[in-house]
Write a structure and sequence with these properties.
The protein is of the alpha/beta class and 216 residues long. It folds into two domains: 1-34, no CATH class; 37-212, 3-Layer(aba) Sandwich (Rossmann fold). Helix content is 39%, strand content 21%. It contains eight helices and eight strands; from the N terminus they run ααββααβααββαββαβ. It has helices at 3-7, 26-34, 61-72, 76-93, 109-115, 119-131, 154-161, 188-199, and strands spanning 41-45, 48-57, 101-104, 135-136, 140-142, 165-167, 176-184, 204-212. A six-stranded mixed β-sheet has the order 1-2-8-7-3-4. The protein has a two-stranded antiparallel ribbon with strand order 5-6. The chain starts with a helix and ends with a strand.
């Protein structure tokens, strides 16, 4: 143990207890594991059925703390921790995406100005790095006129999501894509992103989220 570790030990981001260098203590890790999402959703885009996997159920108090923390803190250790969790899902159920391009659902301009970073982008970068054979690319950007989805009802989300995103460039898109975000509720945002990718050449897509919420 180093001098620095003795006087400035790593504390769990969720409960404040001294913990290992992962940033989440064993107890909180167990609580997160206990809130694991038991199944995956399917979102339909045209004739395609896109699987959506989540690590956790948002209704759990510890999961909520984690999601809120990630929106406000650029903590590399936590993104590495979550990236390993996503790698387990991919290697277990989604081997065909081992060599895919990893991208993310982009934030609104106002959100980026408030927080200074995009948590979904950081998550996608670390997941691509953990997969080793995958690549990371910024494929999508948010259009300026759209609102934050979290403040809207289901009907409002679906309306707001139409024409929400566009491609960042006119370069050819990868054939296989892993699309990542922190939370899925109605799936409207994910559908908008998937639709834009599919219309421009992507053939295989899977969506990965930290947590899923009940539909409103």
């Amino acid at each position: 143990m180093s001098f620095f570790d003795i006087f400035y030990p790593t504390k769990c981001i969720l409960c404040g207890k001294i913990t290992n260098d992962k940033g989440i203590c064993e107890s909180c890790g167990d609580q997160l594991n206990g809130a694991a999402a038991l199944s995956h959703r399917i979102i339909t885009v045209g004739k395609l059925e896109i699987p959506c996997y989540s690590l956790y159920e948002y209704k759990n108090a510890t999961v909520k703390k984690l999601v809120v923390y990630l929106k406000k803190h650029n903590n590399k250790k936590i993104y590495e921790y979550l990236a390993q969790k996503f790698c387990c899902i991919i290697q277990k159920d989604l081997n065909q995406f081992n060599n895919a391009c990893v991208t993310f659902v982009p934030r609104t301009k106002s959100s980026l100005q408030t927080n200074g970073f995009d948590q979904a982008e950081l998550l996608a970068k670390e997941t691509a790095k953990a997969l080793k054979s995958a690549s990371f690319q910024k494929l999508l950007r948010r259009k300026s006129h759209t609102s934050e989805q979290k403040f809207l009802s289901r009907q409002e989300r679906e309306k707001n999501a139409k024409n929400m995103v566009t491609l960042r460039s006119k370069n050819a898109l990868p054939k296989s894509v892993i699309l990542m975000d922190d939370v899925i509720t109605t799936g409207s945002t994910a559908k908008a992103c998937v639709n834009e990718l599919v219309q421009n050449g992507t053939e295989n897509i899977v969506c990965l989220f930290i947590s899923e919420t009940a539909l409103r």
